[in-house]
Design the sequence.
């Protein structure tokens, strides 16, 4: 496949080149052009991959050396760098975990001769990888375009001696290249390298502002992900020692799982990889690194939460799902994921910081995706893929919109967003679409959740946790949205002027959220079903998925609901015509004082009072620190059980 | 397709007539229980007609849009139900409808309306798990989430899922805004709440919400009727009996706080469902 080869190369190398250009160029207009151009080329590449279909690719040599050797060298260089950072920050955990990884790699490369073994092909681009590439290159690129403008404004508000914008864009764009490498890699040793690169990029991005808090949280992200990295490396060593060189190929692992029956050692290695995925996807008890990552400028959060980083974790777990199908590991994964879905959703209720609500929601949804992988039926796997696609779009959109609003109103607190619908009507509309698309019909996330619950009926405990969590999510989303919609009688929406970068990224993602949901049928048929059927050979599956897609036989179909929603929007215009409808003052038991549109009232002793409104947060009962301790312990026990059942 | 459209049309026309009539009967029976004569049975219709003729007052367009969303989405859920659709999707569409009602209450700057909306959200939190567990129970028992497949059952659902039915009665109390759970808005004005979510609605817009409540009542009683599909007459009687039980509960109970409601539904309601589902699951696993 001649063109495929170039598409893979461009997807990985173009971000590297673009990142270097941003760093060396040092000018705003250059970063601007580079981010737009890179975005367009990457999106075209991803579409090209989608059209070309799956293929394998084995790169040749570089200056007479095999790529494998180059990657080995780069691995050690990266670990040395992490060791240096750990030493400079006096952070023991980072040093220890990096040292463990280095020892494991030495063992792998020299002890077991891993550097000589090169499973072919190095890259295997299959249907799932193509879906991930589409997400990374389209959603990720939009975030980078947004980032150029955002970080410039960010520096105006928080001046620094020497501009750190080039550095910021460098790490932001190179992240996309590392993610592309990660999803295309078939050689697990290569995947491990890209895995470490994404860890390192996120460390650099979280610590961008260089405040004590930022550096502390960046270090936490680094050590937690290094733990995952160590688990990954241990998994590689076990695979090589007990399985042999062939097992380092993802394709081999996937195609020989039934024959091998995933014997003890191989399953143990797989459980290590699942653990690595869980740390990267910030599952309990590792969620604190992702919550700490909130200190970074918003495009970083958007990138980490939607198209990169955390999606690498669920990608690996989902990818390996056929290998551990039917084992206890699978059931435990489902239960651990479902528990995270519930616990993170409950914790989100107590948060008034918009970014923390979004972060908990991400942790929760990743838990749902992992639960689907653990349930491990064809329908559940399709649900997981649907959730990955739609979560990336909607969560990216919500983060970017939060960042935009934060720059406009100077706060990311939900209470400060009161009445946003009149102050920033476009942002409020985007928020409305984004929030509804996260959990309500007829949007894609709901279709995924629906399929998840339907398939979970096989696994009662997981199903029960999913049911509770599903009810909880509505609470924190709707009360946030409610704050933004609030308006005084007869208030007239202000004009809102948005920068072109924001229009491009927010507009693009809003359109994607709506259009992908409307055309979920074709999306499922052309992308999701092939990705599932390549590893799950089950008759009747096609028919099962058709119910989502076509809604045949009077089943659920998203079309009528979309038509109804459009109808509501239009009809509301007719029902409420500003000239014909009066706007009476708010009812305050007849004690209104002041202008009709105000909410000042006469209180005791001839004093005036102003109505103050606020959301319920239940901080008395839902004390975040206390509950985090509790759920972290449960999470830890689940992880230990997950590893325990494989050993046993 | 034509048949489906006919069903939808029938639902749109017939359901509010039925719902309004049931509401009227409720008012008469409630009055009798309290030793009053009560209004004529058709009083709800007179009320709505009068509201429609009143002046249109509203704070802003989104307040009206969300009220309309509430109506349209409840009709959509009812239509899906009558077409024999997927129970989970029906529950989720109902959740969107309730969410739309909540957002309408949030769209104004009224303290009463906001308290009502916050409480309605807590009510959703209270009943949503029970409704989804009900759908799961139906799946475990019949092997399908589809309402229409219930009609192929020889044995009524009530026989295998009696505890879930009791849990549904709790949900009904919350959903049709009866004491002890009329926390978000109620049929009577209350001191701390005035009229809750609907405080800032009046005239034709309030009529819209009243009519939506009628549709919702029919849908909820439909869920109760689902427990006895053969003969359907038995199911209808079952639903009417459930409705009567709700009236009695309404008249013998005082309002309770939301804390109590959450504790009650998350322990009582959910445990009832779990025991019932557990038994079904064990029996099925045992091949009985």
Sequence:
């Amino acid at each position: 496949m001649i063109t495929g080869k170039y598409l893979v190369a461009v997807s990985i190398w173009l971000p590297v080149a673009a990142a270097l250009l941003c760093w060396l160029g040092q000018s705003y207009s250059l970063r601007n052009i580079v981010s737009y151009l890179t975005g367009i080329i990457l999106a075209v590449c991803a579409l090209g991959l989608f059209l070309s279909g799956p293929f394998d690719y084995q790169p040749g040599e570089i200056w007479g050396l095999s790529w494998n050797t180059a990657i080995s060298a780069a691995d050690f260089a990266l670990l040395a760098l992490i060791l240096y950072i750990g030493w400079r920050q006096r952070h023991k955990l980072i040093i220890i975990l990096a040292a463990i990884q280095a020892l494991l790699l030495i063992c792998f490369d020299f002890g077991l001769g891993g550097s000589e073994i090169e499973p072919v092909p190095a890259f295997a681009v299959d249907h799932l990888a193509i879906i991930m590439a589409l997400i990374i290159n389209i959603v990720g690129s939009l975030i980078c375009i947004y980032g150029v403008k955002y970080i410039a404004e960010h520096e105006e508000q928080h001046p620094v001696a020497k501009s750190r914008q080039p550095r910021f864009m460098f790490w932001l764009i190179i992240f996309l290249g590392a993610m592309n490498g990660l999803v295309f890699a078939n050689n697990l040793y290569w995947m491990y390298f890209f895995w470490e690169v994404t860890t390192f990029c996120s460390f650099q991005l979280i610590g961008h502002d260089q405040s004590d808090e930022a550096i502390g949280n960046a270090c936490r992200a680094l050590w937690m992900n290094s733990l995952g990295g160590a688990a990954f490396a241990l998994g590689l060593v076990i695979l090589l020692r007990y399985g042999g060189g062939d097992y380092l190929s993802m394709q081999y692992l996937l195609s020989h799982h039934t024959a091998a029956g995933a014997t003890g050692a191989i399953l143990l290695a797989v459980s290590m990889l699942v653990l690595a995925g869980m740390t990267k996807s910030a599952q309990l008890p590792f969620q604190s690194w992702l919550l700490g990552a909130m200190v970074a400028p918003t495009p970083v959060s958007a990138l980490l939460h939607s198209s990169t980083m955390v999606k690498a974790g669920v990608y690996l777990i989902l990818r390996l799902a056929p290998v551990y199908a039917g084992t206890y590991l699978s059931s435990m994964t489902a239960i651990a994921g479902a528990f995270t879905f519930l616990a993170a959703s409950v914790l989100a209720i107590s948060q008034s910081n918009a970014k923390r609500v979004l972060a908990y929601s991400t942790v929760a949804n990743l838990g749902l995706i992992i639960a689907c992988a653990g349930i491990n039926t064809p329908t559940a796997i399709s649900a997981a893929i649907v959730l990955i696609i739609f979560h990336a779009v909607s969560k990216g959109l919500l983060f970017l919109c939060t960042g935009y609003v934060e720059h406009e109103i100077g706060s990311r607190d939900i209470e400060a967003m009161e009445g946003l619908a009149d102050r920033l009507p476009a942002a409020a509309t985007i928020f409305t679409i984004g929030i509804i698309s996260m959990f309500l019909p007829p949007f894609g996330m709901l279709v995924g959740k629906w399929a998840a619950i339907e398939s979970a009926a096989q696994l009662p405990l997981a199903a029960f946790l999913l049911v509770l969590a599903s009810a909880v999510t509505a609470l924190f989303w709707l009360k946030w949205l409610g704050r933004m919609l609030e308006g005084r009688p007869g208030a007239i929406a202000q004009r809102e002027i948005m920068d072109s970068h924001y229009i491009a990224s927010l507009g693009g993602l809003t359109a994607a959220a709506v259009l992908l949901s409307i055309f979920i049928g074709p999306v499922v048929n052309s992308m999701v079903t092939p990705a599932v059927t390549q590893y799950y050979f089950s008759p009747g599956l096609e028919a099962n998925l058709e119910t989502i897609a076509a809604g045949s036989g009077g089943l659920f179909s998203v079309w009528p609901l979309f038509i109804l929603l459009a109808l509501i929007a239009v009809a509301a215009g007719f029902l409420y015509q500003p000239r014909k409808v009066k706007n009476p003052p708010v009812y305050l038991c007849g004690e209104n004082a002041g202008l009709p549109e105000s909410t000042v009232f006469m209180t005791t002793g001839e004093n005036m009072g102003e109505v103050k409104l606020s959301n319920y947060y239940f901080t008395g009962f839902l004390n975040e620190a206390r509950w985090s301790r509790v759920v972290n312990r449960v999470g830890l026990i689940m992880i230990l059980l997950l590893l325990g059942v494989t050993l046993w | 397709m034509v048949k489906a459209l006919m069903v939808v049309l029938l639902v749109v026309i017939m359901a509010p007539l039925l719902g309004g009539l049931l509401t009227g009967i409720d008012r008469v029976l409630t009055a009798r229980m309290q030793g009053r004569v009560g209004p004529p049975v058709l009083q709800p219709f007179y009320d709505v007609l009068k509201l429609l003729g009143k002046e249109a007052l509203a704070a802003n367009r989104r307040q009206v849009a969300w009220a309309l969303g509430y109506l349209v989405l409840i009709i959509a859920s009812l239509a899906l139900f009558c077409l024999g659709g997927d129970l989970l999707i029906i529950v989720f569409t109902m959740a969107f409808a309730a969410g739309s009602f909540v957002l309408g209450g949030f769209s104004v700057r009224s303290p009463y309306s906001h308290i009502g909306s916050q409480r309605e959200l807590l009510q959703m939190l209270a009943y949503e798990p029970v409704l989804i567990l009900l759908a799961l129970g139906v799946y475990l028992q019949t092997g399908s989430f589809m309402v229409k497949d219930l009609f192929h059952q020889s044995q009524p659902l009530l026989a295998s899922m009696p505890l879930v039915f009791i849990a549904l009665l709790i949900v009904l109390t919350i959903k049709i805004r009866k004491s002890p759970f009329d926390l978000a808005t109620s049929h009577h004005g209350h001191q701390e709440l005035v009229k809750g979510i609907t405080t800032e609605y009046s005239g034709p817009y309030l009529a819209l919400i009243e009519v939506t409540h009628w549709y919702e009542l029919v849908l909820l009683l439909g869920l109760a009727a689902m427990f006895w599909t053969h003969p359907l007459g038995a199911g209808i009687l079952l639903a009417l009996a459930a409705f009567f039980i709700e009236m009695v509960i309404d008249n013998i109970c005082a309002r309770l706080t939301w804390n109590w409601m959450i504790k009650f539904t998350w322990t009582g309601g959910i445990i009832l469902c779990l025991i019932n589902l557990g038994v079904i699951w064990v029996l099925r696993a045992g091949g009985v």
Remarks:
- Chain A touches chain B through 62 residues (CB under 8 Å).
- Residues 539-543, 549-556 of chain A have pLDDT under 50 and may be disordered.
- The first strand of chain A starts at residue 55 and ends at 57.
